[in-house]
Specification:
59% helix, mainly alpha, rod-shaped, single chain
Length: 187
């Protein structure tokens, strides 16, 4: 105290500042909130992918085949693309339903791998015919009419439905791929 009385110039010149409002949230809290939001987004994406992976392969294939029919590629003169998409859809279905590396096999290798696994020999016969025929069309060794190409897709839907017992038989006119009121399969 004696030093402050002796040297008034040593006293603080300004009083401490008073805060007008409450202080903002700490930076650490903002960073933690941001990390939490990012983790929630990653979790949502992960769960969505897992749900998509669990989708019924027959239902997915039927939807793809119906989209292929709706695209009407043969009528537009795009027959090669039609058969490329048909073969890709069938190979994805076989890979998902029977756990066979269908995209790595030639048509004869694929049908040989499925001979013992597929519950319906109609699927194997259909794949044997359509995949070879698709290769012939894609490599300009044969031609097909748009009606024949359309019939190949409709036959694919029939064969997939026959191989998957949980799906009902198709109705006349190709059937609808909308979910049934019971929530099971398509009808």
């Amino acid at each position: 105290m004696i030093a402050l009385q002796a040297a008034p110039e040593l006293r603080p010149l300004k009083p401490p500042l008073e805060l007008v409002g409450a202080p903002g949230p700490p930076v650490a809290l903002l960073v933690a909130l941001l990390v939490l939001v990012v983790l929630a987004a990653v979790l949502i994406v992960y769960l969505a992918r897992r749900l998509r992976a669990r989708a019924d392969p027959a239902l997915v294939a039927e939807r793809e085949l119906q989209r292929l029919l709706d695209a009407r590629l043969p009528e537009q003169g795009r027959l090669k693309e039609h058969y490329e998409r048909l073969a890709a859809c069938l190979r994805r279905y076989v890979a998902a339903a029977y756990e066979v590396p269908a995209t790595a096999f030639t048509p004869p290798e694929l049908t040989a791998a499925l001979d013992g696994q597929a519950p319906d020999s109609g699927l194997v016969d259909y794949l044997r015919r359509v995949l070879v025929l698709g290769d012939l069309v894609r490599f300009d060794h044969t031609t097909r009419t748009s009606d024949e190409a359309r019939a190949d897709v409709l036959a694919g839907i029939e064969v997939i439905r026959a191989a998957a017992p949980t799906l009902p038989s198709p109705k006349s006119g190709g059937g609808s791929l909308a979910p049934s009121p019971s929530g099971r399969g398509v009808g």
